[in-house]
Design brief:
Elements: E1 2-8, H1 15-26, E2 39-43, H2 50-59, E3 66-72
Antiparallel strand pairs: 1-2, 1-3
């Protein structure tokens, strides 16, 4: 089982995160300053194959704007 965390690179404007920041502030949490919205993808492979898992994570990443971190997780 693998987990890929796909994150927007720093310096790239996160429009959805900015909208959530404003929404949280308007709902009474004025201390919220910067929300970033990332993706977590968890998947199973029949065989333990790091290269294939990395290819899957990479296929879901826009490498111009995002980077990924891949980890093997337990059942």
């Amino acid at each position: 089982r693998y987990r890929a965390m796909i994150c927007i690179r720093r310096g790239i404007l996160d429009n959805a995160g900015q909208a959530v920041t404003y929404a949280l502030q308007s709902l009474g949490w004025p201390d919220v300053e910067d929300v970033r919205i990332d993706k977590i993808i968890e998947f199973n492979l029949e065989e333990n194959n790091w290269e294939k898992a990395e290819a899957i994570a990479k296929s879901q990443t826009n490498e111009v704007m995002e980077y990924y971190e891949l980890e093997e997780i337990g059942e």
